[in-house]
Design brief:
heterotrimer, A mainly alpha (114), B alpha+beta (291), C mainly alpha (626), B: 5-stranded antiparallel beta sheet, 9 helices, elongated, C: 626 residues, mainly alpha, two-stranded antiparallel sheet, two-stranded antiparallel ribbon
């Protein structure tokens, strides 16, 4: 789904452009409904037991990531964004995951005092 | 010389300035909330069994707040689309809806959820005294069923003065359902609909208590994380609402008449911030309310 | 040339979009709340220099205690208690006061001195000029970032005057000490040293974040026509990477600071473990926190921060080297690649500040490896700088003196860091004077020399006058000598076992009095070091006088007194609002010195390429043409 393109100041092009936007509007409403549905699913799934606590957390985080992905891709237009923005976000994602993961690795190696 | 590319795209990047600016800002916000989430993760994995609570937050209210924030994300993107379609009236109504949703979210949190917590009491029992309060804790039952140990008695504190008065030697607590009936299998896991305190009163000696406060940030690592993360998130919601209000007031109409694309861009940039705030909540909600 | 100059559009309705001030701004909007990057750059510069001076004075006080522990400060000892309170009653320092000096010296020098000066001041003033832009992309955000810095700095200064004195838990504010410091009787619950330190820091961090956003967007979006990425002056690359480091590394520390504030003000236990005993009694806290969490979040910033301190200086040194050797920088592509790799790796080395926290061997091996790896691009950069001198026609101007001195000084600092990359060696050296010597060599005769060089170099662009050469040399030589007398013996003190943060300079500690190095014990070395520090303080006086005197009375110069090639020297001195008289276009690389066949030994970036140049198939071997 593409970002609505930048419009020119030419009034003749308004008509086509405004019509094009309407398709995007439908998309936004659909995604909104999906997000609400997934919220209900998140709550419902939290009462199902997937074995261990870790598994429960994993399922909840998976659903949350899906929802976050939809918000990012559609509402924040990331699906159609320029390369530069992707690059910034990929580095950011790498560093924040590094913060979590490397700290975790350095956390558990000694049992007595944290 | 004017500063170029404030509205039009620079050819090689395909972007206008504020769009890059806001994404850079959001990248820094990812790192900020990343730092907070890392605190949550490490405090939680460090918590001994029984010390990280479940079911203390109001799930229906939290769900409703989540839905409100999601709806506000929809309305803000529709507000932006209306501006791109040069429909100011529709923009104005969608923006009002967004602001209202934001304010409702904050009101629910600050006028209902948080005060409810501040009114709730919890006392951690010393290890050596756990046996004495077995009838409220049910640790034998929990051990049999493979559930985590119960180390805390919670409920409504009748004599608030006891918190600060060293002369009063016990807490009088109207027990929560779990402590009122700890061996009831219904109480093994949290429910969707929250139960309020029962009428059953327990008297807990201060000398048996390891640590007791109302459900404030200082009560536990859990509440410290909860209030800090939702507090900072709430500040971000407030900031977004204030920016939206500015873009909704008549001053925005003047900008719209002068240069509608400029206003559209500003709304897009603020909308991106708002979606990010929604995104953070999408993770906060299950981590604190459900898991 | 676009149409936005003053006269003819004055009385017509605005044809273009953004509000552009055609009418004269009032004095407040022009000089105090300005949104012009040059004014903001100078504001940052002056404030940064003031804080640098203040931090230096704190150090001079500390050095008295180290050389003559327990003795009253002469002359000023009588009135210091009136300023700083009972911590220095009768002119004699209490241990707490010494610790405060240490914590605030570090904090102020780094966050209120070097970063605002190196990144914000030089970056703001020079970068838009070097890329041919009229200003930063977000001028109002720029002003906001300066004022946030101002508020943060003021809060830090206020902390000196509250009961209990300023923060005293080290610039690293390790918990649980920092959580409980400055609390209890005699301390205000909010207006105490450590809490004010935390609050001030939030403003300083926010300032850096806003600044970083501005720099990155400006460099990406506002480069002049023809100024491709590989034609950028190395200074711009250095600032670009520095901005990314600030943007992504500061926020986790901001999160940690919020949590420490919660611990101090709301009595949470983010960093307080269960079972903590304070003053002999179990602390009445919820517990469940982790002191280690603070360290991880702090050093996640702490390490990129040190690259924030050095990269702008690398950039300044690069510009001055090329200019004063009259030849292009050697290895431009390697320099760019190296600075990008440094930026990336700096995020995954932080635990080398935490070798003593008991992490396991696997993750320790990971961090040792990345730490050693990151030394490689640093060596590449330094080597490229050295090689750039080879075959050059060196002009020993004052900026060049500081620049040449930078090279071996940074070399010593960097090389002495290598043993610290090994957790085994660091077990011994951690928290000793070896560490102090290592990082001060990098920041003091390293970065600060780069900053001095930059001030002497760009002074004519900001004022149309040069600083006095003779007094510049009088500033340079004693400073260089004293820097080495101060920090070289510290390596030896550290290797002999003298620890940091001993408030009596080691007088009461066996390790500091056991062996002699070059005839003096570790403790005895404190005296010559302190005297060198005080003499170095005197050597800064010519600089301060020269700086202010030359603004009004310095030798007048033209727009390009150094005969440099980069775009800022095509603008008038000082540049007007909007910077350039005609929109700049870049036709060539940034260091086209000594091009064969040309009349002058330098060719500016905006000079069009002549047909004669175009026919050359391959550039001559000694010229890097990107």
């Amino acid at each position: 789904m593409n970002n609505p393109p930048d419009i020119s100041q030419d009034p003749k092009e308004y008509e086509e452009y405004a019509h094009g936007i309407r398709k995007h509007v439908r998309g936004y409403l659909m995604v909104g409904a999906i997000l609400l549905a997934f919220t209900a699913i998140t709550v419902a799934l939290s009462y199902v037991h997937f074995g261990t606590q870790k598994a429960n957390i994993a399922v909840a985080m998976l659903v949350a990531t899906l929802k976050a992905g939809l918000v990012a891709a559609i509402f924040m237009h990331l699906a159609a964004e320029k390369r530069l923005i992707y690059r910034i976000l990929i580095f950011t994602g790498f560093f924040v995951l590094g913060l979590f993961w490397l700290t975790f690795l350095a956390w558990y190696d000694y049992p007595i005092f944290r | 010389m004017e500063i170029p590319y404030t509205i039009s795209n620079r050819p090689d990047t395909g972007l206008w300035n504020a769009k890059i600016g806001i994404w850079l800002f959001l990248a820094s916000e990812v790192m900020l909330f990343g730092g907070l989430f890392s605190a949550y993760i490490f405090l939680r994995i460090d918590a001994p069994p029984g010390m990280w609570p479940h079911g203390l937050l109001n799930v229906p209210v939290g769900t409703m707040n989540t839905a409100i924030l999601i709806m506000s994300s929809v309305t803000v993107v529709l507000a932006w689309a209306s501006l791109k379609m040069r429909n100011y009236r529709a923009y104005w109504w969608y923006m009002l809806a967004t602001i209202s949703c934001g304010l409702i979210f904050l009101t629910v949190k600050l006028a209902y959820e948080w005060p409810q917590k501040f009114d709730h009491f919890g006392a951690y029992i010393k290890t050596e005294a756990l046996g004495k309060y077995e009838k409220y804790l049910g640790n034998e039952y929990a051990a049999e069923k493979g559930l985590p140990p119960r180390l805390e008695i919670t409920g409504h504190l009748h004599n608030r003065a006891t918190l600060n008065d060293p002369n009063i030697k016990e807490y009088e607590v109207a027990l929560d359902p779990l402590n009122a009936d700890p061996t009831n299998p219904e109480m093994d896991r949290p429910h969707f609909w929250p139960h309020s305190a029962t009428d059953k009163i327990a008297t807990i000696e201060k000398e048996d208590v390891q640590y007791a406060t109302m459900f404030e940030p200082r009560h536990s690592a859990y509440f410290a994380s909860y209030f800090t993360i939702t507090g900072l998130h709430g500040l971000h919601v407030l900031g977004g609402v204030l920016v939206f209000i500015y873009m909704w007031l008549p001053v925005s109409k003047r900008l719209y008449q002068r240069n509608p694309e400029h206003l559209a861009n500003r709304v897009e940039v603020s909308g991106l911030f708002w979606h990010f705030v929604d995104l953070i909540w999408i993770f906060v909600f299950p981590l604190f309310y459900l898991l | 040339m676009d149409t936005s100059t003053s006269v003819d559009t004055h009385h017509e309705p605005h044809a273009h979009d953004a509000a552009h001030e055609h009418h004269e701004l009032g004095w407040w909007r022009k000089y105090i709340f300005s949104t012009d990057h040059k004014v903001i750059g100078i504001q940052y510069g002056l404030c940064g220099l003031v804080f640098l001076f203040f931090g230096f004075c704190l150090m001079m006080l500390m050095r008295w205690q180290l050389a003559y522990p327990g003795q009253a400060l002469p002359v000023i000892g009588k009135w210091l208690p009136h300023i700083f309170g009972p911590g220095i009653a009768d002119g004699k320092m209490t241990p707490d006061f010494y610790n405060s000096l240490g914590a605030m010296h570090g904090t102020i020098m780094i966050f209120a001195g070097v970063v605002p000066l190196a990144f914000a001041a030089f970056g703001n003033f020079v970068v838009p000029l070097q890329i041919g832009a009229p200003d930063m992309t977000f001028p109002k955000v720029n002003a906001a970032s300066f004022w946030a810095f101002g508020v943060g700095g003021v809060i830090m200064m206020i902390s000196f005057f509250v009961p209990g004195g300023p923060a005293k838990s080290g610039w690293t504010s390790y918990t649980p000490l920092a959580d409980i410091a400055d609390t209890g009787p005699g301390h205000n619950p909010v207006f105490n040293g450590q809490t004010l330190w935390l609050l001030g820091f939030i403003f300083l961090i926010s300032s850096s974040l806003l600044g970083a956003i501005n720099f990155i967007t400006t460099i990406i979006q506002l480069r002049a026509k023809g100024l491709t990425w590989m034609r950028l002056p190395f200074f711009v690359w250095a600032q670009f990477v520095t901005a990314f480091l600030l943007l992504l590394a500061f926020p986790p520390l901001e999160a940690a600071i919020v949590m420490q504030l919660m611990d101090r003000v709301a009595h949470t236990s983010f960093f307080l473990p269960a079972g903590l005993v304070l003053n002999g009694a179990p602390a009445y806290i919820s517990g469940g926190g982790s002191p280690l969490l603070w360290q991880h979040l702090f050093w996640f910033l702490g390490h990129p921060e040190v690259y924030v301190l050095i990269l702008p200086a690398f950039g300044i040194v690069a510009e001055i080297l090329a200019n004063n050797s009259r030849k292009p920088l050697w290895g431009y592509k390697s320099l760019v690649f190296s600075v990008l790799v440094i930026g990336f790796l700096s995020f995954i080395v932080w635990a080398h500040h935490m070798w003593m926290t008991g992490m396991g061997s696997a993750v320790s091996a990971f961090f040792q490896t990345t730490t050693l790896l990151i030394s490689i691009p640093s060596v590449i950069i330094l080597s490229a700088f050295f090689i750039s001198l080879w075959g050059g026609s060196i002009r020993f101007t004052v900026p060049m003196l500081f620049t040449i001195a930078f090279l071996p000084m940074f070399g010593i600092g960097g090389l002495t860091g290598i043993p610290l990359a090994f957790n085994s060696a660091d077990l011994y050296l951690h928290d000793t004077y070896y560490i102090i010597a290592h990082f001060h060599y990098i920041v003091a005769p390293g970065t600060i020399f780069g900053l001095f060089a930059g001030i002497y170099y760009w002074f004519p662009k900001a004022t149309a006058r040069k600083m006095n050469d003779f007094w510049g040399k009088v500033h340079f030589w004693p400073t260089l000598i004293c820097m080495n007398v101060i920090f070289l013996p510290m390596f030896l003190q550290g290797m002999a076992g003298m620890h940091r943060r001993w408030y009596d300079g080691g007088q009461g500690w066996t390790l500091a009095n056991a062996h002699t190095v070059w005839g003096l014990t570790g403790f005895e070395w404190n005296k010559p070091i302190s005297w060198a520090a005080w003499i170095m303080g005197l050597a800064q006086i010519p600089f301060i006088i020269n700086f202010f005197w030359s603004i009004k009375h310095g030798e007048k110069v033209n727009d390009n007194p150094w005969e440099a090639t980069t775009l800022e020297w095509t603008a008038p001195s000082p540049p007007p609002h909007g910077n350039f008289l005609t929109t700049p276009v870049a036709y060539r690389g940034p260091y086209e010195y000594s091009l064969p066949g040309r009349e002058r030994d330098f060719t500016m970036q905006n000079e069009p390429v002549e047909p004669a140049e175009r026919t050359r198939r391959k550039p001559p071997a000694d010229l890097v043409h990107v």
